[in-house]
Design a protein that fits this description.
It is a single chain. The strands form five sheets. The protein has a seven-stranded mixed β-sheet. Strands 7-2-1-11-20-19 form a six-stranded mixed β-sheet. The chain has helices at residues 13-26, 57-64, 68-74, 111-116, 124-128, 131-136, 161-174, 220-225, 293-304, 348-361, 370-396, 404-408, 417-426, 470-479, 484-491, 502-514, 518-525; strands spanning 4-9, 34-40, 78-80, 82-86, 95-99, 156-158, 178-181, 184-189, 195-200, 205-207, 210-213, 230-232, 241-248, 261-266, 269-275, 279-286, 313-317, 321-323, 327-328, 331-333, 339-340. The chain starts with a strand and ends in a 9-residue tail after the last helix. The protein has two domains: 4-77 and 159-232 and 320-383, FAD/NAD(P)-binding domain; 93-152 and 392-503, no CATH class. 44% of the residues are buried. The chain is globular, with a radius of gyration of 23 Å. It has 534 residues and is α+β, with helices and mostly antiparallel strands. Helix content is 32%, strand content 19%. The structure holds flavin-adenine dinucleotide. The site of flavin-adenine dinucleotide has 38 residues, from helix 1, strand 2 and helix 10. Flavin-adenine dinucleotide binds next to helix 1, strand 2 and helix 10.
């Protein structure tokens, strides 16, 4: 078979991940199914944010053949075991964890029911996983020697997004991916919706069989040329701008590296804190209609404290929504060109990973792309909706009334219909595994997905549970004190103290003897420099 020509336009993390992944999966063991090329502009900057990941990234890294330690060294990487949510419920510094791991006892896991029937004196997340305590102690999820702590601790990474794209570029080009540094200035159509070639500022004309639009929010091919609609989701997620600041450890090293992201709710959104091997980064994700640029900067700087004073803060505007179809004709949009749901659960890079994996799985060996596009679009649309519901849920369960923003996010029109149907059902029956097999709930509206002219199943987008499982939903719901009143009615207001099962307590007790501090591990294994605490 003659290899199919794939041209990726855009060299951010989405473009380079697609290039390296497609090349690794389609061209291995003597096969050559795709000739992959990537063109990126030498002067349109990458977005440069996107530093927290979820564990699914492990699949992409191992498929490309990236060694974990080398990866950590190249991207200033650290481990991420959880997100700690602070001040989301009442705005008074209270916190809960969404950890990646969950201890389950077989055959039937009754730990959630036990917690619901208890007095909630211990946070839910601490009763199902040792990782919240491990995060509080700033320990690594790894040991120096042989692993001796039972089930391994799941984790993802924090990383420098620009270095990640550069590292992938180096790997992909060393394996034969062709790289052009040039600006696409024109897109030439073959017929109907098929692209024939792109033309560049330096006078190139590059043909391909498949074009991948990774041009970020510019969406050069999918929107500017093909006119595919952007489905706006800002009525459910109000944030549309971030303000980012970074403080290098040379200037201030706190003496530890947290093995988790922190997300602290503030007046008109929330602030991330992400630790790397050489700096801490903060970003205030906010709704521009609720806070001015000046007020946002003042608030972020007050949060970071005087250590941030010498450093500039950068505004990053964004839009929340998704492409009605991300694969049209022979053009597939991946990354921000395909959509973006705000970064609260670190799903941006994940969605690029998913699209790259799905494109490899639905790779067009022939010219009949329409059924492949239909299936790809359905999977991607479902996953966007799943993430949209999940992020929407973090906001709408708040009890905060201290600012207009927090009063607004609780209003019924700010909760999307699918999520509302789930919450209504779960107020009658706590969420359980069955809800992630059949995701239709009483009262859920039926809004079919676009058919693209093809026959078949166009049911409403569903929560596929593909990325956020029952455990993730429980972590947020019960972190936000969901079902407290209902439990009072079902089980009586006077309930026994919460207990932590032995398996978890044992792990928490032994963790400090077995797991090194996160920074010690990174210094010894992953090349982190030695900074004196300041
Ligand atoms: P970009 O990085 O914008 O790259 C676009 C590319 O297209 C560039 O190479 C540019 O040069 C090129 N280009 C543009 N026009 C042309 C042209 N005419 N010709 C040739 N090339 C062109 N995701 C996470 O997973 N975790 C996070 O914590 C996270 N935080 C985020 C915070 C914010 C505030 C935002 C906005 C996003 C965040 N994301 C996060 C998402 C993440 O940043 C993106 O998913 C990721 O960076 C991928 O971006 P991209 O490659 O699609 O676009």
């Amino acid at each position: 078979m003659k290899p199919r020509r794939v041209l990726i336009v855009g060299g951010g993390s989405a473009g380079w991940m697609a290039a390296a992944y497609l090349d690794a999966v389609l061209n291995r063991d003597g096969r050559r199914l795709a000739d992959v090329s990537l063109i990126e502009s030498p002067d349109v900057p990458r977005i440069g944010v996107g530093e927290a990941t979820i564990p699914s990234i492990g699949h992409v890294l191992s498929s490309i053949g990236i060694d974990e330690i080398e990866f950590l060294k190249r991207v200033d990487g650290t481990y991420k075991q959880a997100i700690q949510y602070i001040s989301w419920l009442d705005g008074r510094g209270e916190s809960y964890y969404h950890a990646f791991g969950r201890f389950r006892h077989n055959p039937v896991d009754t730990s959630t029911l036990e917690w619901l029937m208890s007095d909630r004196s211990i946070p839910f997340s601490a009763t199902i996983s040792a990782q919240p305590a491990i995060c509080d102690l700033c320990l690594a999820p790894k040991m120096f020697g042989r692993w001796e702590l039972g089930t391994r601790l799941p984790y993802a990474y924090h990383m420098n997004a620009l270095k990640f794209a550069d590292y992938l570029c180096e790997i992909a080009t060393s394996r034969g991916v062709q790289h052009y540094l040039d600006n696409v200035v024109n897109v030439e159509m073959a017929d109907g919706q098929r692209i024939a070639a792109v033309r560049t500022r330096d006078g190139r004309r590059i043909e391909a069989d498949i074009f991948v639009d990774c041009t970020g929010f510019a969406a050069l091919l999918i929107e500017k040329k093909l006119g595919v609609e952007w489905v706006d989701c800002s009525r459910w997620l109000l944030a549309d701008r971030a303000l980012a600041i970074q403080v290098p450890y040379e200037h201030n090293y706190p003496g530890y590296v947290r093995p988790n992201t922190q997300a602290t709710a503030v007046s008109a959104g929330w602030i991330w804190e992400i630790p790397l091997q050489n700096r801490r980064a903060w970003g205030y994700v906010h709704a521009s209609s609720f806070v001015s640029e000046d007020a946002a900067e003042k608030e972020l700087r007050a949060f970071v404290g005087p250590i941030g004073d010498p450093f500039p803060a950068r505004f990053v505007p964004f839009k929340v929504g998704y492409r009605a179809k991300s694969w049209v004709g022979n053009c597939v949009a991946i990354g921000l060109a395909a959509g973006f749901i705000e970064p609260l659960e670190s799903t941006g890079i994940y969605l690029s990973e998913l699209a790259a994996v799905m494109l490899a799985e639905h790779f067009p060996y022939g010219d009949d792309m329409e059924p492949l596009a239909w299936r790809f679009n359905r999977i991607v649309a479902n996953r966007f909706h799943e993430i949209l519901d999940f992020i929407n849920m973090h906001y709408c369960l708040t009890r905060r009334t201290d600012t207009e923003f927090w009063r607004e996010v609780q209003r019924p029109e700010r909760i999307n219909d699918r999520l509302q149907a789930k919450l209504d059902f779960w107020r009658i029956k706590p969420p359980s595994q069955a809800d992630f097999e059949d995701q239709f709930f009483p009262g859920q509206p039926s809004t079919p997905l676009p058919s693209g002219g093809l026959p078949g199943d166009h049911r409403s987008p569903v929560d596929t549970g593909g990325v956020f499982t029952l455990s993730s939903y429980e972590a947020i719901l019960y972190g936000m004190d969901f079902l407290r009143t209902e439990c009072d009615q079902w089980f009586g207001a006077d309930r026994p103290p919460t207990r932590v099962i032995k398996g978890i307590q044992d792990k928490v007790n032994i963790a400090p003897q077995k797991l090194p501090p996160h920074d010690v591990y990174l210094k010894r294994v992953a090349g982190m420099p030695d900074y004196p605490p300041t």
